[in-house]
Amino acid sequence: MRLFVAIVPPPAVLHELAAVVEPLRAARPELRWTTAEDWHLTLAFLGEVAEAVLPELGRRLERAAARHRAQQLTIGGGGAFPGRSRARVLWAGIQAGPDLPALAASVAAGARRAGAPPPDEGRRYRAHLTLARCREPADVAGEVLALASLAGKRWTATEIYLIRSNLPGSARPRDASRYEELGVWPLRAAENS
Questions:
Q1: Which of 14, 116, 120, 171 could form a disulfide with 36 if both were Cys (CB 3.0 to 4.6 A apart)?
Q2: CA-to-CA distance for 79 and 19, rounded, in angstroms?
């Protein structure tokens, strides 16, 4: 099964972002736009993971979550991978405190110890929400410019999720969600200042 570990923004934050993205979507229908119900902040993409690994993976993710405080996050700005003139992915940025990369590294280390090594482990962590994918490299400079002034409301992420990605064409009912939540673990409560 194809898995990843993520933070899921609350509905109000997703609604706010959807209002910004909708005009971009309408202007560029040739891009493969993701939907608000699919938007998430990936901490670690795990790829194909054997079902036998799930119990230990769950224990490791629970430990990783317990070591890190709830995260203060804001959706803001945007960009493209690998670059705006020949983009494959258009994304919205995430502003976070210094602990978010440490949380992502802890999740990846726990997955590795459980026997589900992330294929992208060791790459620089870049917090983002994927908004669209391009079938062929595309110039999305206008969309990146439109996202530059995006400054969403601050929100607190209090848990991490283990999510299964049901790929198109996989054995699933037609109306089944693309993503299936397999587990959720709370982050440590934020300390009062």
A1: 14
A2: 18
